[in-house]
Automatic annotation (TrEMBL):
It is a multi-pass membrane protein. The chain crosses the membrane at residues 6-29, 41-63, 83-102, 114-132, 152-178, 190-210, 236-255, 262-280, 321-339, 475-500, 506-524. It is found in: Membrane. One of its GO terms (cellular component) is membrane. It comes from Flagellimonas olearia. Belongs to the inorganic phosphate transporter (PiT) (TC 2.A.20) family. It comes from the Bacteria. This is Phosphate transporter. One of its GO terms (biological process) is phosphate ion transmembrane transport. Keywords: Membrane, Phosphate transport, Transmembrane, Transmembrane helix, Transport. GO terms for molecular function: phosphate transmembrane transporter activity. PANTHER family: PHOSPHATE TRANSPORTER.
Amino acid sequence: MDSIYFLIMVALAALAIADLVVGVSNDAVNFLNSAIGSKAISFRTIMIVASIGIACGAIFSSGLMEVARKGIFNPGQFYFDEIMFIFMAVMITDILLLDFFNTLGMPTSTTVSIVFNLLGAAVAMALIKIGAQNGNFTDVINYINTDKAIEIIVGILSSVVIAFSIGAFVQWVSRLLLSYDFQKKPKWTGAIFGGIALSAITYFILIKGIKGTPFADQTYGFINGMTIKDFLETQVYGVVVVNFMIWAVISYVLIMFANTNIYKLIIGVGTFALALAFAGNDLVNFIGVPIAAWQSYEAWVVSGTPASEFSMEILATKVETPTLLLFISGMIMVATLWWSKKARYVADTEINLSREGEAKERFQPNYLSRSLVRYSIAVSEWITSIVPPSVQGAIDKRFKKPVINLSKDKVLHLPAFDMIRASVNLMVAGILISVATSYKLPLSTTYVTFMVAMGTSLADRAWGAESAVYRVAGVLNVIAGWFSTAIIAFIAAGTILTLISFGKGAAIAILLFAAVLLLVRNYISYNKKTKEIKVEDRLRRAESSSIQGVIDESAANIANAVKRSNRIYSNSINGLAKQDLNFLKKNKKQSNKLSSEIEDLREHTFYFIKNLEEAHIGASNFYINAMGHLTDMSQSLEYIGKVSFNHVYNNHKKLKYNQIKELKEIDQKLQEIFDRTQETFEKKSFDKIDAILNSKQELYDLVLQKIDRQVSRTRTEESSPKNTTLYFSLLLETRDLMTAMMDLLEQYYQEYDSSVPPAKIEQEQ
């Protein structure tokens, strides 16, 4: 039995590496977003600066924070075997939970995850012990460090409101003072802002970095016999004032004599600071539990006491983590930062929620987001009504955004927000984390950095009338994810601990195998989701500024849409014929995907029209009509896919043999039309469209014939209302699909016909 604990240690070591990887993928959002979103410095430079910050933070980390040892439970109440089972349950749950959120692209808190995993597993083990001893279940509070646990939970939750409010206020004041034309302001304003921001960030670096160094707790005569750590925490105002004066002077010198962009410097230093804080503060979330387990194992081996009798009071003492382990952990985190695609996916979520202007919205509005936006608009209108017009006008002038020509190239390369907002994000997050650290208040760096970014976005008027409901819905979804993290972590860790406690080694082996399978499955699923779609399978936005250019350029889009329409329609009929639910479900997703891509093209209409040259303004009508026909086609396919899936999903009667035969006859005829159309647009042989249009009436007559036959069947032999409804729906929607496609072909042929000299047309025909 003793060998099982050695195997548990091996498993925990592997889990620690995996947790570092998934943890960095989740938490990279904390320190990368401001620099990436503002595009102040190159992506490569951002990654190098962040990597150095992570390495320094890990090496100078205090290592093992007490939360993993005695912050949540009272270790003296548990024996070695129980503690090892708790730690195993915590690590398995933590990895799976974080990887799940990473796959969704949702930032969550690794601190909340580890805290509630520990709490859930410890409570479950305590209840098992109490049950075995026939004790009172209220005694569970003796096993849990309730005061510390409540302090951590309250601190984390309160940081959400505080971070959002302070971020919004500081951004509003900063924008009021500097406006969007901050580059044109007198040089001394940049020096003052640089002094404030850099002094705040530097103090943050000192507070978060100094505590892990060997000389942090030594006394020094030149600071009245105090330790450097105590000096920084007690002489806050003096340190901040001197720091500000030094940095303000340095900023002024750099601006005046080196022509330095001080805002870029702030963003670079701030990114380093938050990366350092992440490694120093959150490292415990990834390796704290395995290291506590390792130190417990060492103490147990030396004691020679049976595992079920060796008390874990040793965890109540403080033990430093070897620097080598910290260094290895830092290198794993740096490697993950460079190679993890999920880290960038999670970062995209926050950047898009805080983006200036329009973006492809990931979240759909809900009742709560709409209500909050309406309430906010009402409050804003009330405030506007009581503020003197002159004051309101002056404020609006400071928030007036610069006019930018929204051409296709600039839309794709514009930063999500400017350097002022990026600087405020980093500065405020650094200040809040520094203050919390000074007063030993627990918080989540993810919650703080995310809510600061959301607060600055709101204050900066980035959430306009056309995006507010989506952005608010996104923030609410992320916050809901945070609460679900806590609930899921508590329940899942408790459940896994129970399985391990009763199943011992067999249960651990099965759970580890299941965890590996889930991680591999998530990895494969994510790769499929984010894999670069081939050019022929993706609709591309039009960039030409003339009708002829749009015709030429959009030919690939039409060929692609027709090819996919052909596949979706055929799959719907084949799925119904085979009653294959999974096949119909996948086909339904494909139709939804095509509709989504076409909708994205429609949303591009604004920028397309903006980019048109005056002489080719007619191209806008052509583009709008083409998008309308494509939308009609996609809606018909979406409906056909949906009703086909629902019919089989609800276990209704199968379509009769003759009905399937007739549908396949239509499908075969449609395939011929689709194939000819696809070939025509791929080769840009627009002169051949006329021949395809000549088959329009034949198609209509075929569908009408099938409708008449079904009417006769319904009157004489059909007994299933659902069957009849489905068949008529398919036929009518097929007719609408053909109408939309023929209208699209007619539009292209008319434009082609009018743009080519008559003699050439005759020759080609």
